[in-house]
């Protein structure tokens, strides 16, 4: 009887220990994953930190503990860049076939042939497609950049239902189109654009520090060596949003590019949402994650002909 009773007790005990070991193993695996993720984030931050130093002034490496002082600021820059990327919508289909009914394409380009001219003029895109294995791609993902231009004019408009001349209006056009970072998939493009934003911030940091140093030339500080430069670098890194931000603008344009205010209606209207990258110098460029069918790319000879 005693031996019979011990069998289920031993079985229950083994089950208890098996359950406890499974829980411990699960927690340990979770800890390993967390530690690995933290290690990757630390390595990424340290690599970005060295890029910031290389892109601004290698002199700060003369200061002991410079990595510790810069790490939080560099982490702020990386988080800011990730935030900017999260606000960019999914890629937009930029096929010329959509020009007639896509409001953004209709506003961004003069006509459907203009789309082919812009993408066809991109050397990075052509070089990308010339690589082995790329000829079969149905779509290529690219960063499309352009600037918005507004001009005040006097023109004909409907006022209280009556055609009226010399009405103050604002024309909106888009110029300076540029196609960069061709990629086979959207995640690849997003990684390239994220890299582009980070490098842009590094260049802006360098520019700001140079200007600060030049502005201080009239009253030289007591310490103008690497230590003073490191102090300035730490301060600038702490506010990446002052260097680069993403503004979202809503616009209503008629089909000839006249801005429509309020609920003014003139038939077919292009309702636009623009994502404009703004630097601290107030320079603005519209960013579009685009996908484009390579079979629409015009031959280079067509672009060179008058």
What is the N-to-C order of secondary-structure elements (H for helix, E for strand)?
HHEHHHEEHHEEEH
Stretches where pLDDT is under 50 for at least 5 consecutive residues are none
Calculate the mean pLDDT score and round it: 84
Q: What percent of the residues sit in helical stretches (DSSP H or I)?
A: 40-55%
- Class derived from helix and strand content: alpha+beta
- Count of individual helical segments: 8
Q: How is the main sheet built?
A: 6 strands, mixed
Apparent shape: globular
Report the sheet-strand fraction.
15-25%
Work out the radius of gyration: 28 Å
Distance between the termini: 104 Å
- Count of strand segments: 6
Short recap of the structure:
The chain is α+β, with helices and mostly antiparallel strands and 306 residues long. The protein has 8 helices and 6 strands; from the N terminus they run ααβαααββααβββα. Helix 1 packs across helix 6.
Structure description:
It is a single chain. This protein is α+β, with helices and mostly antiparallel strands and 306 residues long. It has a domain of 213 residues. It has 8 helices and 6 strands; from the N terminus they run H-H-E-H-H-H-E-E-H-H-E-E-E-H. Strands 1, 2, 3, 4, 5 and 6 form a 6-stranded mixed β-sheet that branches. The chain is globular.
């Amino acid at each position: 009887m005693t031996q019979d009773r011990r069998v289920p007790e031993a079985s229950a005990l083994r089950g208890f220990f098996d359950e406890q070991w499974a829980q411990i193993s699960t927690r340990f695996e979770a800890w390993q994953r967390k530690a690995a993720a933290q290690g990757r984030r630390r390595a990424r931050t340290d690599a970005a930190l060295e890029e910031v130093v290389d892109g601004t002034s290698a002199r700060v490496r003369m200061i002991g503990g410079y990595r510790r002082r810069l790490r939080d600021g560099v982490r702020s820059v990386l988080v800011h860049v990730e935030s900017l990327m999260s606000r960019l919508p999914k890629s937009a289909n930029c096929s010329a076939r959509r020009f007639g009914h896509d409001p953004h394409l209709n506003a961004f380009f003069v006509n459907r042939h203009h789309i082919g001219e812009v993408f066809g003029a991109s050397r990075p895109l052509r070089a990308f497609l010339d690589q082995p294995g790329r000829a079969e791609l149905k779509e290529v993902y690219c960063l499309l950049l352009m600037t918005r231009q507004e001009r005040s004019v006097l023109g004909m408009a409907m006022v209280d239902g009556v055609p009226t001349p010399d009405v103050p209006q604002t024309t909106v056009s888009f110029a300076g189109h540029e196609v960069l970072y061709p990629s086979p998939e959207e995640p690849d493009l997003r990684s390239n654009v994220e890299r582009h934003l980070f490098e842009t911030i590094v260049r802006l940091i360098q520019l700001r520090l140079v200007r600060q140093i030049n502005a201080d030339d009239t009253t030289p500080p007591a310490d103008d060596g690497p230590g003073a430069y490191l102090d300035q670098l730490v301060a600038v890194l702490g506010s990446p949003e002052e260097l680069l931000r993403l503004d979202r603008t809503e616009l209503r344009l008629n089909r000839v590019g006249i801005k429509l205010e309020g609920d003014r209606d003139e038939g077919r209207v292009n309702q636009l949402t623009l994502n404009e990258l703004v630097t601290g110098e107030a320079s603005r460029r519209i960013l579009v994650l685009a996908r484009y069918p390579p079979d629409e790319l015009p031959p280079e000879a067509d672009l060179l002909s008058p």
